[in-house]
Amino acid sequence: MAEIAQDHGEKGKKGKPKKMSTHVDFTPMVDLGFLLITFFMLTTTLIKPQTMEIAMPSKDKVTEEEQTKVKASKAVTIILGKNNKVFYYEGTRENNVDPQVKSTNFSAQGVRQLLIQKNYNLMVRMRNLKNQLESKKLTQAQFDKQKADILADKGAPVVMIKATDNASYRDLVDILDEMAICNIARYAIVDVTPYDLGLIKNLNI
Given this model, what pLDDT does residue 151 score? Predict the structure, then answer.
């Protein structure tokens, strides 16, 4: 608050200009400053970064023949279509026979049930490991090490995620959430191929 103080001088004297001084009171500004500091301290503590864990590729050297064998036996291809439709097939084309394509959705009995069935053993191991951590039988360092060993299991399924041009961004986010929920450690987002589009051509209605 600014105040202007006037000095009228001595009584009876004329001709001297009046002296005026300005005084600014910053007391209300101090209160406002503390309010702003308190506000930002409270709001910043509520903001937590949301991250997604990424499983990095193993450094172990694997021959091309072993890679092809693993992909053929453990591969699950998920194709995201229009209108929130989800298609999947297991394995690859063998002996000129196309894999059987099935349709599902994002319900609890849909794609999640499929992933749970394919990754059931690993999920049970992860659940037991988390229970040991919660019961203080394992330290955080021991938990992290054993978790990495479980996720590196070569018997786990490999999921290939492919989105068509008609798929929505929300469907892609939802399927990535399902990967985390079902503890799918090995998955990749790849481009859909004309072969995949041909498989779902009669189903993508």
Answer: 77
Q: How many residues does the chain have?
A: 205
Between helix 120-134 and helix 111-118 the angle, nearest 10°, is: 80
Which tokens go with 141? 């360092």
What pLDDT is attached to residue 58? Answer: 55
Spatial separation of the C-alpha atoms in residues 157 and 178, rounded to whole Å: 14
Tokens of 181: 């929920």
Judged against a pLDDT cut of 60, whether residue 85 lies above it is answered with yes
CA–CA gap between residue 22 and residue 158 (Å, rounded): 76
How far apart are alpha carbons 55 and 78 in whole angstroms?
19
Which is more confident, 202 or 58?
A: 202
* Structure tokens given for 107: 């319900």
**Residue 156: burial class (beta carbons within 10 Å; 0-12, 13-18, 19+):** buried
Per the CB < 8 A criterion, the answer to whether 135 and 159 are in contact is: no
Query: DSSP label at 94?
Result: B
**pTM exceeds 0.85:** no
Tokens coding 163? 């989105």
